[in-house]
Design a protein that fits this description.
The protein is of the alpha/beta class and 355 residues long. Helices cover 39% and strands 17% of the residues.
């Protein structure tokens, strides 16, 4: 039966929420790595504490650590279908001395993933930081808390680099260098790479270029090293804020159909309201995008890869220590996505009865 792999993102450190996520019907995980780049960076970038302490002796991106992670998740009833984390990559992103060592570390991870049968690697080209938000506690429906971004507030933060220190073409050249080194290994290993958009998708962040911030940039990406193993992490919230979508030149369902399953190995199913200069995250049923039509588009292109909710509201009784990633909002989102999935792809029992 054709269907998505409804997934969640978790670090390899068990906690009580895992049982709830499993009870909601999630069987597959796209994991972080214990102490690697995004595991350490994603919450620090928005001023939050994060997932917790690290307890690891092995290189997080090596085969031994990845195998340990997969076995840990398996012990809790999950299979690992991808990772959203890697070795540090800022020198690679900026084309600086030392990038070859960083790329070698990514190659080590890709080879290990192939040997372990883990088919998807999500990476990004956001140097020196991760997702950007200017508020992580905006009141939304019923007093739930969501994250948001306002450009004028962001511009008051310290610069990431000095004006002119890094150019867009420098980062494009570095991306091409990276892809030419890594994509052939991904092909040999059976691993599909999905490049995540800049978040928010603006061309600059405090003097630093953000080159993956438009639909045009993704069309350019796909031409650099054409391969089914070099594709897109289709993060709907970011694509919904891109200029081509806001200005009505295209829309998310059309983009899904344009890129197709050959170029979309992985989906972040989420929504926002506003523009790239000022926006808020939303409940899945309260954003500006036609999410049912998006799911129909995924069905039309034959998408069967991992799809997970992202940046969910913090609900009553939760601490908001992990903005966008507390438990109750995830459970709401999982149920919402499962409902859309069965409406578009069909109900498993019905398909079995009609077989």
């Amino acid at each position: 039966m054709s269907t998505i792999k409804l997934s969640e993102m978790l670090p390899p450190r068990p906690e009580a929420s895992w049982k709830l996520i499993k009870q909601c019907g999630v069987d597959t995980i796209v994991g972080l790595l214990n102490g690697a780049e995004q595991d350490q960076r994603m919450f620090a970038s928005v001023g939050a504490k994060g997932f917790g302490d690290i307890d690891a002796d092995d290189v997080p991106w090596g085969k031994k650590a990845l195998k340990h992670n997969a076995e840990l998740f398996s012990d809790h009833g999950f299979s690992v279908v991808g990772f959203e984390d890697s070795a540090p990559m800022d020198k690679a992103r900026l084309g600086l001395p030392g990038r070859d060592e960083e790329i070698d570390n990514v190659i080590t991870q890709v080879k290990a993933m192939g040997e372990l049968g883990i088919p998807t690697l999500c990476y990004n080209w956001m140097a020196l930081s991760s997702w950007g938000r200017t508020d992580t506690a905006i009141p939304a429906r019923g007093g739930a808390l969501v994250t948001g971004f306002e450009l004028k507030v962001s511009e008051e933060k310290p610069p990431l680099v000095q004006p002119g220190e890094v150019t867009p073409e420098q980062m494009w050249s570095a991306l091409e260098y990276f892809l030419k080194a890594v994509v052939p290994v991904a092909e040999e290993s059976g691993v599909r790479l999905g490049l995540h958009p800049d978040d928010p998708p603006r061309p600059w962040d405090r003097n630093l270029p953000r080159i993956m911030s438009s639909v045009a940039a993704y069309r350019r990406l796909l031409e650099i090293v054409p391969s089914e193993n070099s594709g897109i992490t289709f993060c709907q919230g970011n694509f919904a804020l891109m200029r081509e979508v806001i200005d009505g030149e295209t829309d998310l369902p059309s983009l899904i159909r344009e890129f197709g399953s050959e170029k979309i190995p992985f989906v972040h199913f989420r929504d926002v309201k506003g523009t790239v200069e000022k926006f808020e995250e939303t409940f899945h049923d309260a954003g500006q995008t036609d999410l049912p039509e998006c799911m129909r588009a995924y069905h039309e292109i034959g998408f069967e890869g991992p799809m997970r909710p992202d940046h969910v509201p913090t609900l009553a009784g939760e601490s908001n220590q992990r903005p966008g990633y507390e438990t109750l909002g995830r459970l709401f989102a999982i149920g919402y996505i499962r409902g859309l999935e069965q409406a578009a792809y069909g109900h498993p029992a019905s398909k079995e009865n009609n077989a």
